[in-house]
Amino acid sequence: MFYEPRLANHGLPFGPLKAIVTPRPIGWISTLAPDGTANLAPYSFFNLLSESPDIVGFSSSGAKHSMRNAETSGEFVCNLATLPLLEQVNLTAKAIPASESEFDLAGLEKAPSRLVAPPRVAASPCALECRYIETIRLKDSNGVDSKSFLVLGEIVGVHIDDRFIEEGLLQAERLQPVARGGYFDYSWVDRVKSVPRP
Ligand SMILES: Cc1cc2nc3c(=O)[nH]c(=O)nc-3n(C[C@H](O)[C@H](O)[C@H](O)COP(=O)(O)O)c2cc1C
Fold first, then answer.
1. Distance between Cα 27 and ligand 1 center (Å)
2. Which of 31, 47, 116, 180 lies at a C-alpha separation of 20 to 30 Å from 155?
């Protein structure tokens, strides 16, 4: 089959694009609202985009709380979403008022960050403390502004639960990071193959 996304002429019950670009890592973003409320939400338009500087980005479909808090406070934390936490990850996607915390909604404990103010998810084995860089409003190929915003931040601190490091290497298959697929689908890493470069 072939279709053009602008025409949505795929003839399927749901657009298949997100099932093609999968697995997409999930940035489980914690931020602080101006009133001090700890906000937490998953973003699968998320990735590590650069090293030196180490930059992560997430894209917000509309100006959501995570984006606004990152902009106003200048900080955010990307917690690693893992298989044992999948239910909580999903719960924290619920749209609730800015004055309420998804940490409480999902019964998640906070852990302090070191270099930034937003707390980490205590149960998550890895977290990236980030300083906000900028928000880029995404345009389409005709130069027309969209309602999506790419939020960029520099990783200034990295937390790793030492139990997942063996012989100096982080064991991804033990961390079991979850990723987003299409529809309501998730996948996770539980098998890794090393292929040294030629
Ligand atoms: C696994 C998962 C990934 C998501 N990824 C995104 C995303 O990349 N961008 C987005 O705008 N919303 C995404 N959402 C929806 C947001 O998490 C949801 O709108 C949430 O309420 C936003 O919270 P906030 O306003 O506190 O930032 C995702 C939801 C789930 C369950």
1. 10
2. 180
